[in-house]
Write a structure and sequence with these properties.
By secondary structure, this protein is of the alpha+beta class. It is about 65% helix and about 15% strand. It has a single domain, classed as Arc Repressor Mutant, subunit A (Orthogonal Bundle), CATH 1.10.10.10. Helix 1 runs antiparallel to helix 4 and helix 3 packs across helix 4. The chain is elongated and about 45 Å long.
Length: about 90
Amino acid sequence: MEMSDATAAMSALSQPTRYRCFQLLIQRGQASAGELAEALGTPANLLSSHLSILSAARLITSVREGRSIIYAPDKARLAELISHLVSMASA
């Protein structure tokens, strides 16, 4: 993993709402934006911004299903980040 990718991912997770959103997606496997907004008690328009940042950091993926967008964690990307951090600690 490139340093810029690692810092983008860690930066995206450094904000509490985004961290909690990502945590919920890890726990649930997937969720719609509406489900996430309700679970977090966050207005949908604000959550959309957070989801965009997580998506730009490639920590989540999205798929349109009808009128909804379903978000899921990118577990492979998370594994890359973890591996990167472990290798730094081992150096």
